[in-house]
Amino acid sequence: MKRSMWIPALAAAVCLGGGLIQAADKATVSGEVIDSSCYVKSGAHGGEHSGCAGGCAKRGVPLALLTDDGKVVMVASAKDGETANALLIENVAKKVTVEGSWYERGGAKIFYIEKVTPSK
After folding, report:
1. Which helix (H) or strand (E) holds 100?
2. In the prediction, which pLDDT does 98 show?
């Protein structure tokens, strides 16, 4: 995986400048916590991929959510200076429900997480 390809994605997730569009209401999203790089590149996810995904996340590869209908949701922490990986890493390859808000700019749509609840 090339780190340079993640720089623009991370910059978009971190920058909260003027003109940001926020959904009117809070929302929830449920899905499996995945390593975004391996999933997009090879479809890797699930328990058999948890070790790799956890290692990639510790090295800075962004975690994301894979919903039951197969959509990948890119995420960020709602708290400034905190990464989504810090919120999700203990649940890699497991299903969670996250609470927060959608933000969108320039065609990029990111879910900003306020709370993570592991699925039962």
Report:
1. strand 95-105
2. 98
